[in-house]
Task: structure prediction
Amino acid sequence: MINVILGSEKRPGVWSWECISPRDGKSYSGFSRAPLLDACRALKRAGENTLLEIGLFGKDGNDAPLIRTTIRAGASLTVSDKVGNCKFADWMPNLRFAKGGK
Result:
């Protein structure tokens, strides 16, 4: 299992995260409201095997992940929070930013 380490809260609801790709040993990191899902997308873009299991771990040294999935499943999801109804939803890239628009 790939370990995504949850870092500190940088601002309300935004956490740092870091993981290492088993394919090439490269480190990936970022800041996110959904760290595990963003790590999945980063590893998928890097060409990692999307069938690998990936889990979010706190810094408390606990061996059990807080949540886990496969890279493929995690990369396809986002968290939707509409009026107190928090759930997983299909992820769609923000094409406006991906294409360099404003």
About this structure: The first strand starts at residue 2 and ends at 11.
